[in-house]
Design a protein that fits this description.
With 275 residues, this protein is mainly alpha-helical. Among the domains are: 76 residues, Glutaredoxin (3-Layer(aba) Sandwich), CATH 3.40.30; 110 residues, Glutathione S-transferase Yfyf (Class Pi), Chain A, domain 2 (Up-down Bundle), CATH 1.20.1050.10. The protein has 10 helices and 4 strands. The chain has a 4-stranded mixed beta sheet. A hairpin with a 3-residue loop joins strand 3 and strand 4. Helix 3 packs across helix 10.
Length: 275
C-alpha cells in the first residue's frame, strides 16, 4: 500500500491532501507494472474429421480447406449418386440433412461451412488462411466470410427461384443479384483476393456462390471481368485441383437448370416508397 494511504492527514482539507499525495504515487506504481503478455495462438489436437459430401455442392469448401492445410480427413459420399450421398447425411443428421455435414470427433456433428472453416482454422491451423487479427485486411476477410452466404448466395437463389417461375422484365429497385455480384467485382478491382493481399478462407467461401451466379445465368458473366480473372487464379491452385479430383471426380452432376434469361442489365428503377 502506498505510504500516502497509511499516513493520517490532519491539516487542511483531508480529501484534497489525500488526492495530492496519493495520485503521483499511484501513477508511479502503475507505470512500473510489467506489460501484459501478448495472447498466443494455441494449436489444439485435431480430432478425426469426416466430411459428408454432395458432389458440386458447398461441402467442397471443407475438402478444399483440408487440402490447402494438408490436414487429414475422411470423405464420405456415393460417387455419382446424389440421393445415396444424401441418405448417408440423413443417417447422422436427420433433422437438417445438408452438405456439408461434418462429424467432428466422436460426439459432435457440425453444419454451416463458414462455422466449420472457422472452427478448424482457429483450433487446428492458427495463423493460416486468415489475416492477422490486427491486420487491415482482417475486417474485409471477415466480411466476405459472412457475405458469401448471408448476402450473396441468399440473394442469388432467391432471384433464381423467382425468375424460373416468371422471367424478369426489369431490375429490382432493391438489392438484386447484379448488385451483390457487382459489390464483389468492385472489391476485386482493388484487391487481389477476398482476404486482401493474400489468399484466405474467404476466397474458399466466395467461390461457390460466384460460380452459381455465372453458371446459372443469374447475371451476365461478361460484366464481371475481375471475378472471372479471380476464378482463373483460384482454379489453378494445386489444392483446388486436388479437391476436384477427390470430391468431383466425374465433373458436376445434378446441375440445376440454367435460367433462360436474367434481369436486364443497367441502372435500377428508383425505389418508390408509399406515403
Amino acid at each position: 500500500m502506498p505510504d500516502c494511504l497509511a499516513t493520517p492527514h490532519k491539516q487542511g482539507n483531508p480529501m484534497k491532501r489525500l488526492f495530492a499525495s496519493c495520485v503521483p504515487a499511484l501513477l508511479i506504481a502503475v507505470s512500473t507494472l510489467a506489460p501484459a503478455a501478448p495472447v498466443k495462438e494455441v494449436k489444439t489436437a485435431m480430432p478425426a474429421i469426416t466430411i459428408y459430401h454432395l458432389e458440386g455442392r458447398r461441402s467442397e469448401r471443407i475438402v478444399w480447406l483440408m487440402e490447402e492445410l494438408g490436414l487429414p480427413y475422411n470423405l464420405q459420399f456415393k460417387r455419382g449418386d446424389l440421393a445415396g450421398s444424401m441418405a448417408a447425411i440423413r443417417a447422422i443428421n436427420p433433422v437438417v440433412p445438408m452438405a456439408p455435414t461434418v462429424q467432428y470427433g466422436d460426439n459432435q456433428v457440425l453444419v454451416e461451412s463458414g462455422a466449420i472453416i472457422e472452427t478448424i482454422l482457429n483450433r487446428h491451423a492458427p495463423g493460416k488462411l486468415q489475416p492477422a487479427l490486427d491486420s487491415p485486411d482482417y475486417p474485409y476477410h471477415l466480411v466476405w466470410m459472412h457475405y458469401a452466404e448471408g448476402s450473396l448466395a441468399a440473394r442469388l437463389f432467391s432471384d433464381y427461384r423467382a425468375w424460373r417461375a416468371q422471367p424478369p422484365k426489369q431490375r429490382s429497385p432493391l438489392v438484386d443479384s447484379e448488385a451483390v455480384v457487382q459489390f464483389a467485382e468492385d472489391y476485386l478491382a482493388k484487391h487481389p483476393w477476398f482476404g486482401g493481399e493474400e489468399f484466405s478462407s474467404a476466397d474458399i467461401m466466395m467461390k461457390f456462390p460466384l460460380d452459381v451466379a455465372t453458371s446459372l445465368n443469374i447475371v451476365d458473366v461478361s460484366q464481371f471481368p475481375k471475378v472471372a480473372a479471380w476464378k482463373v487464379k483460384i482454379e489453378a491452385r494445386p489444392a483446388y485441383q486436388r479437391m476436384l479430383a477427390k470430391a468431383r471426380p466425374d465433373g458436376l452432376i445434378g446441375k440445376l437448370p440454367v435460367l433462360p434469361e436474367h434481369a436486364p442489365s443497367g441502372p435500377r428503377a428508383p425505389l418508390t416508397i408509399p406515403k
